[in-house]
């Protein structure tokens, strides 16, 4: 999710004046008959788990309910989505509590009643169990998949592990596990690779045999060998996130970390260590089971892989329906301090050693902790907050602590470095909130807009108009970066098979993905990190549908410096205007400047698997780039003008904005 963060180095504001003449149009692309003026003073001295986003999404594990724990601790239990191959006349399966892992004791007992031949012969291909993954497994030709499972049996074993089509008729890869009677008397870990000979986007993993007897299974996993940075993340989805150049990663989320009830809250310490030993938990806020393969360590690792700073939202002893009183909150406080030690502690510390054992002896740069999720209204929040704040600052004084209360509640007795803001509203109101922080006092803690999204009918499943409204809102945050530290849209990912929230930035299934218009909108802000901000004011009567900002930024790939002017036209009128740039210490280059436009033929246009590029940015060279230039703003559009500057233009006054993401 896109986040904007502002860290002030120094800030001297100048005026960006926009005076526009407008006329009514019906479709995007019409040209206004009158001319407007935009002036820029470019003097260098004046310058955020739901929707199966993790399990069955960003985390590349292909097996759903790999440890058979999803049905609960009472046995026999539901093993969904596992199903049997065969019928009850030749196979019986049931869960029991015989696992070798104390933290997740459930295992699956499979009793085979048929034989390889004779009067009680098994069906052709054998009997067994299969797992369809999360609405089908995407198996690609020539790709290698790592299979892992734990097996126990008091008899000899002959088990075939296969990747097949959803009906079992197409065999993509197979491996046979064999062993004598004594080989699997104790729980035994078995690992091997499966190389696929074909492609199927709705495949399954199946375990079959034609040998009678009893076999127990536990922790059955299938992971692609090719994951993002080799750390277990689905490569295509993580790459889409990386393309936004996020500077912060907020995790593990809001309601997800709380749970409807504390028994189902995200507990960081139960999500670290060997994946086989993680108990998993029921995500009751969004009604699905997660094995917690994507745990606290993996969130920190993903932030590092993206070059982003982690922002940890802690469980502060509150769920959506419960609250721990202050008299008994101490254990929760200690748990959070331990979590910070896991992330940042020396390898010789108790929890730092756990991180080091997981292959990361260096500490993670955790410098942001959010205490709770919009819980200021809860009875014990303020008293509990002070206990968390004091304990964290005592051990880690450099950590910035984010309060769920607004600025008015922050005081010397209830201190905070930052305060949390959530904004969910219609597109029209979101556009108007581009001015939300203009009257905010310039003293005191900054805001963290940790969740924002256009919702309601005009949001659809991700419309152009919603993206434009959010763009205007982000420009407003950019213009007020002296009082806003960061922001993240919510949510970032959604599995199309399990939509719990609309809209979302990135939509996917087992084998496809696309960005919604708001995902592409975020690309207009990804170069803001370390940019020099030139704030703008718009002077225009009878048309208040324009929001604009100007920055100068350095391209790290080619070393060039650009002046970027962004303009949202949220109205139905096209604008023809002249841009006048003053204060530059070097010329705007004749060649190398780019105009990028996000618009479409209808304000409620959306992207889809069938039309993933219906609403995407279109870039074109600016042929008349200069300090004086005429441009056209389409109706209902976001336009950026990246003007290439000569090498002598520097960034002396930096507003440290940067894109961020929220899980």
Automatic annotation (TrEMBL):
<dbReference type="InterPro" id="IPR055235">
    <property type="entry name" value="ASD1_cat"/>
</dbReference>
<keyword id="KW-0472">Membrane</keyword>
<dbReference type="InterPro" id="IPR017853">
    <property type="entry name" value="GH"/>
</dbReference>
<feature type="domain" description="Alpha-L-arabinofuranosidase C-terminal">
    <location>
        <begin position="450"/>
        <end position="637"/>
    </location>
</feature>
<dbReference type="InterPro" id="IPR010720">
    <property type="entry name" value="Alpha-L-AF_C"/>
</dbReference>
<keyword id="KW-0272">Extracellular matrix</keyword>
<keyword id="KW-0732">Signal</keyword>
<dbReference type="Pfam" id="PF22848">
    <property type="entry name" value="ASD1_dom"/>
</dbReference>
<keyword id="KW-0325">Glycoprotein</keyword>
<dbReference type="Pfam" id="PF06964">
    <property type="entry name" value="Alpha-L-AF_C"/>
</dbReference>
<keyword id="KW-0378">Hydrolase</keyword>
<comment type="similarity">
    <text>Belongs to the glycosyl hydrolase 51 family.</text>
</comment>
<dbReference type="InterPro" id="IPR013780">
    <property type="entry name" value="Glyco_hydro_b"/>
</dbReference>
<dbReference type="GO" id="GO:0046556">
    <property type="term" value="F:alpha-L-arabinofuranosidase activity"/>
</dbReference>
<keyword id="KW-0812">Transmembrane</keyword>
<keyword id="KW-0964">Secreted</keyword>
<feature type="transmembrane region" description="Helical">
    <location>
        <begin position="12"/>
        <end position="33"/>
    </location>
</feature>
<dbReference type="InterPro" id="IPR051563">
    <property type="entry name" value="Glycosyl_Hydrolase_51"/>
</dbReference>
<protein>
    <recommendedName>
        <fullName>non-reducing end alpha-L-arabinofuranosidase</fullName>
        <ecNumber>3.2.1.55</ecNumber>
    </recommendedName>
</protein>
<keyword id="KW-1133">Transmembrane helix</keyword>
């Amino acid at each position: 999710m896109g986040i904007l963060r502002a860290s002030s180095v120094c800030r001297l504001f100048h005026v960006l004046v926009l005076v526009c003449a407008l006329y009514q149009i019906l479709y995007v692309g019409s040209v206004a008959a009158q001319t407007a003026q935009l002036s820029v003073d470019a003097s260098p001295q004046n310058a955020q788990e739901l929707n199966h986003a993790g399990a069955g999404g960003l985390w590349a594990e292909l097996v759903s309910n790999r440890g058979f724990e999803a049905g609960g601790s009472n046995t026999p239990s539901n093993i969904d989505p596992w199903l049997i191959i065969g019928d009850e006349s030749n196979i019986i399966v049931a869960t029991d509590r015989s696992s070798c892992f104390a933290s997740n004791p459930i295992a699956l007992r499979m009793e085979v009643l048929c034989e390889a031949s004779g009067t009680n012969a098994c069906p052709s291909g054998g009997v067994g169990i299969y797992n369809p993954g999360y609405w089908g497994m995407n198996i690609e030709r020539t790709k290698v998949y790592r299979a892992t499972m734990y097996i126990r049996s008091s008899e000899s074993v002959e088990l075939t592990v296969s990747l097949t089509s959803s009906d079992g008729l197409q065999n993509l890869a197979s491996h046979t596990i064999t062993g004598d009677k004594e080989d699997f008397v104790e729980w035994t870990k078995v690992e091997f690779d499966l190389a696929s000979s074909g492609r199927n986007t709705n495949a399954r993993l199946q375990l079959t045999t034609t040998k009678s007897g009893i076999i127990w299974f536990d922790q059955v996993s299938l992971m692609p060998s090719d994951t993002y940075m080799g750390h277990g993340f689905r490569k295509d989805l993580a790459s889409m996130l990386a393309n936004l150049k996020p500077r912060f990663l907020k995790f593990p989320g809001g309601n997800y970390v709380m749970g409807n009830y504390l028994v189902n809250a995200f507990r960081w310490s139960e999500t670290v260590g060997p994946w086989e030993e993680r108990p998993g938990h029921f995500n009751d806020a969004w009604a699905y089971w997660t094995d917690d393969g994507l745990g606290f360590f993996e969130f920190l690792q993903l932030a590092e892989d993206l070059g982003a700073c982690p922002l940890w939202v802690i469980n502060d002893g509150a769920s959506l329906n419960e609250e721990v009183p202050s008299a008994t909150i101490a254990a929760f406080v200690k748990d959070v301090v331990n979590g910070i030690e896991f992330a940042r502690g020396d390898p010789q510390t108790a929890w730092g050693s756990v991180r080091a054992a997981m292959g990361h002896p260096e500490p993670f740069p955790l410098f942001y902790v959010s205490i709770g999720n919009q819980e200021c209204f809860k009875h014990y929040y303020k008293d509990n907050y002070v206990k968390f704040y004091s304990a964290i600052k005592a051990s880690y004084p450099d950590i910035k602590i984010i309060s769920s209360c607004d600025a008015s509640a922050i005081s010397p007795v209830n201190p905070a470095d930052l305060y949390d803001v959530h904004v969910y509203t219609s597109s029209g109101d979101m556009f108007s909130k581009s001015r939300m922080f203009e009257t905010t006092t310039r003293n005191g803690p900054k805001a963290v807009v940790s969740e924002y999204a256009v919702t309601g009918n005009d949001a659809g499943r991700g419309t152009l108009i919603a993206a434009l409204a959010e763009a205007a809102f982000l420009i407003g945050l950019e213009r007020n970066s002296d009082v806003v530290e960061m922001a993240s849209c919510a949510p970032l990912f959604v599995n199309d098979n399990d939509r719990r929230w609309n809209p979302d930035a990135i939509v996917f299934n087992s084998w496809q993905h696309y960005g919604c218009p708001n995902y592409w909108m975020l690309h207009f802000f990804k170069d803001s990190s370390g940019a020099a901000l030139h704030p703008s004011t718009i002077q225009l009567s009878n048309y208040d549908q324009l929001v604009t900002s100007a920055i100068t930024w350095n391209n790290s790939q080619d070393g060039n410096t650009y002046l970027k002017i962004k303009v949202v036209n949220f109205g139905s009128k096209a604008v023809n205007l002249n841009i006048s740039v003053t204060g530059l210490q070097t010329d705007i280059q004749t060649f190398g400047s780019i105009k990028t436009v996000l618009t479409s033929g209808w304000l409620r246009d959306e992207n889809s698997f069938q039309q993933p590029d219906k609403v995407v940015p279109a870039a074109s060279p600016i042929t008349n780039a200069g300090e004086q230039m005429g441009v056209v703003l389409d109706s209902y559009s976001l336009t950026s003008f990246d003007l290439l500057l000569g090498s002598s233009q520097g960034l002396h006054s930096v507003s440290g904005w940067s894109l961020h993401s929220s899980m």
